[in-house]
Amino acid sequence: MTSRNQSENETLKINEMRNITFIIFFSIVLIIYSLINYYIFIRGWKAIPVDSAIRPFYRWGFLFLASSYIIARILERIWLSPVSDIFAWVGSFWLGFMFYFFLAVVFFDILRLLHLAFPVYPWFMPSDPAKFRFAVFVITCISVSLIMLAGFVNALSPRVKTINLSIQKNAGNRQELSVAMASDIHMGTLVGPRRTKKMANLINSLKPDMVVFAGDMVDEELAPVLRFDLGRELKRISAPLGVYAVTGNHEYIGGADKAKKYLEDHGVTMLNDTMLLIDSSFYLAGREDRTSTRFGHKKRKDLGELLNGADLNKPVIMLDHQPFGLSEVAQSGADLQISGHTHHGQLWPLNYLTRAIYEVSAGLKKIGKTWFYVSPGYGGWGPPVRTNSRPEVVLFRISFANSGS
Predict the structure, then answer these.
(1) How far apart are CA 231 and CA 329, in angstroms?
(2) Are 147 and 108 a contacting pair, CB within 8 Å?
(3) Sequence-separated (6 or more) residues with CB below 8 Å from residue 344
(4) Which terminus in the chain has less CB density within 10 A, N or C?
(5) What are phi and psi of 27, to 5 degrees?
């Protein structure tokens, strides 16, 4: 009884710490979000003529758009419904509009500052600055809208990317292996039944030997996944050697234990800092996400612990959601690591930021004898828009050294 009480107390403490962490994180994000929106609003407000009939619509329309995402996050926790869906879609699109409006406003403010010292505004600037500001306002709104529309169409158009690799290790009687992979699906309100079904169909059409998911299958809260019964599409995915996944940061933000159980119940084998010998031919190892310490309050295994007992003469495929510490992985004996997380920035020009943060922001790279592949993902976080990469399902065609070599 004492042991049970201790376990319950530990669970309560973990949940309490996770809630505190989330509140602190959310508060910081909310402050930054509010300041950016205020900055955009003021610049737009000043660009609209004082006597314009647009001003009242702008004020209340901006308030609705800017508050929609916050309202959606609250409603999804207390009243999941078509109403919360509307706010989620409007608010998520606004995140993309907000980002590009912010870039535009910063750009024009820099021009304004430069113009104080050097005349940089074009010679065709009208004599009435108010008309010029309003024209820029209108052109900016149209331009950002077109960018968002193109990005939305792109986000709905996943491609299949085929990658041929050679691993010079003996895999028993198996000389080849086909692995279908997807990451960062973010199943939920925005990536619902239609897009999840399309993903399942794409994967099944490839007829892979094995399927792997490199984290962030669930977009934080599990409730929308349950509501739309998205797991039924996961159950349709089949492969002779199985379907496997690791956690991402979003599973941990929303509650990893619930997400893991749901995925396991729908045909996905979760690799929770575990390693399996598949078909007596190769190892598949899966790491818990790095955020397991912050949000799950448990330390993930280091590579030595994870690969302890493995025959490194056999091929080793590793799943790790976040592509950090690649040199360490290259020294561990792993032959291929598959990751996601970066989204390759998702919105241009954020890809330059992810390239600065990660050794591999997207694509394939070999370090020593180890291959690394980082996928920009199938779904997305925030705005349902991609402006610098296409969503993808990846098919790895892996050849091994001949059994007699």
Answers:
(1) 32
(2) no
(3) 351, 354, 361, 362, 374, 376, 388, 389
(4) N
(5) -65, -45
The pairing of strands 176-182 and 392-401 is antiparallel
Cβ–Cβ < 8 Å for 196, 217: no
User: Tens of pLDDT along 178-229?
Assistant: 999 999 999 999 999 999 999 999 999 999 999 999 999 999 889 999 999 9
> What is the three-class DSSP state of 64?
helix
Question: b or e along 62-91 (b: 16 or more beta carbons within 10 Å of the residue's beta carbon)?
Answer: beebbbbbbbbbebbeeebeeebbebbbbb
Q: Model pTM? A: 0.89
Query: Do 353 and 342 form a contact (C-beta atoms < 8 A)?
Result: no
Contact 335, 370 (CB under 8 A): yes
Percent of the chain with pLDDT over 70: 91
Residues in contact with 66: Cβ distance below 8 Å, sequence separation at least 6, in sequence order: 37, 41, 94, 98
Tokens found for residue 37: 């929106």
The predicted-structure confidence for 312-329, as pLDDT tens digits, reads as follows 999 999 999 999 999 999
Residue type, 149: L
Whole-number average pLDDT of the chain: 90
Whether the CA torsion 159, 164, 167, 170 is positive or negative: it is positive
